[in-house]
Amino acid sequence: MTTASGYAIRRFSPERGTFGRLLARDSIARRMDWILLAAAVALSLIGSLLVYSATRGRTSLTHGDQYYFLVRHLLNAAIGMGLAVGTVALGHRRLRVAVPFLYGFVLLLLLAVLSPLGATINGNRNWIVLGGGFSLQPSEFAKITIILAMASLLSAQVDAGDRLHPDHRTVAQSLCWAAVPMAIIMGMPDLGSVMVMTVTVLGVLLASGASNRWVLGLIGAGCSGAVVVWKLHILGQYQIDRFAAFANPALDPSGVGYNTNQARIAIGSGGLLGKGLFHGTQTTGQFVPEQQTDFVFTVAGEELGFVGAAIIIVLLGIVLWRACKIARDATDLYGTIVAAGIIAWFAFQAFENIGMTLGIMPVAGLPLPFVSYGGSSMFAVWVAIGLLQAVRMQRPISA
């Protein structure tokens, strides 16, 4: 059968069997972006080795089981992949219908963090403890929700053929949808997540074709908001100290500047090829705090050297490259905006995480996508991979 657009589509038939369905031109296997999937899987597996290296000797964290974090990291990755499969099965257009329900559910989770159900970890009250050693960070899922909510609003008129670009009222409504969860998260306060969401919103607006005045206005509002937050002392003292240490690396090297200084020592000592996996002195000596989460890149720099660290950056680049291709080839504006939001999210979060270990960005407590230990982060990035694959599958395959 041939569609009106000239694309050939083959119908499935029972006689073709499973193998035939997998090889069919319009099958899921043929539509899947395997390069994107392979890069994401590789990052997750590399992350498992780095997490294991960073935690195997820390008995106070592992409760005497050196494989504690390794097993959990692999389990988180497996669950994340399952969520990605479920996202692909639903399709990004079906999720579009469910956006209001997802948005409301995530808001309830964020508000629950501010209730007695919430827990404070490393100075941030952005967790819900579930018991059994498991916890949930709703701000990670808020990133996805903001992208889907804004994409749904900004693309409605364009995809319906009523307009070429979203009007000012629609843009304002979409920004309000994004502002509500961001305001709650800022109240925790989780500055790192708000930074990621701000860049993500900017990427969404650029992809939607909104007026440049909105883009410039958002940048101005972000700068003004940063000044207000600073003047009103909304930030915690530890967050202020992080910015102070970033501005002056020599400030209190045994105190507020300790994390960054030790991170740079670890990465710098790795040289070209590194000291060998599981043989990093900074890592085995436990000099770098939070090395399995925020500072996991230091393990790669020390033990795998410049080459190993570069491989991680290249794999992240491949994920962004394939996401850009999916955004370009999307069949509707909704798909383009969803992919663009994910690109902005991944790109900034990876840059911030790696940058803070090198001392070129302030410490913000953000995980490295796919690599850092953390269930909520792993689930969120794999759902994003599922969304990218779902957008790609809407693209017809030419004969």
Mind explaining what this structure looks like?
- By secondary structure, this protein is mainly α.
- The protein has 16 helices and three strands.
- It has a three-stranded antiparallel sheet with strand order 1-2-3, with helices on one face.
- A hairpin with a 2-residue loop joins β2 (124-131) and β3.
- α7 runs parallel beside α16 (375-393), α8 (168-186) packs antiparallel against α9 (191-208) and α15 packs antiparallel against α16.
- The protein starts with 16 loop residues before the first helix and ends in a 6-residue tail after the last helix.
- The model is unreliable at 1-16 (pLDDT under 50).
Question: What descriptors fit this protein?
Answer:
globular, 67% helix, 399 residues, mainly alpha, three-stranded antiparallel sheet, single chain
Principal-axis shape equals: globular
Number of strands: 3
Largest sheet: 3 strands, antiparallel
> Could you tell me the radius of gyration in angstroms?
22 Å
| Strand residues, percent | under 5%
Distance between the termini: 11 Å
Question: Strand pairing plus helix content: what structural class?
Answer: mainly alpha
* Average pLDDT figure: 84
Order of neighbouring strands in the sheet with most strands: 1-2-3
- Helix fraction, binned, reads 55-70%
The parts where pLDDT drops under 50 for at least 5 residues are 1-16
- SS summary, helix count: 16
Q: Would you list the SSEs in sequence order as H and E?
A: HHHHHHEEEHHHHHHHHHH
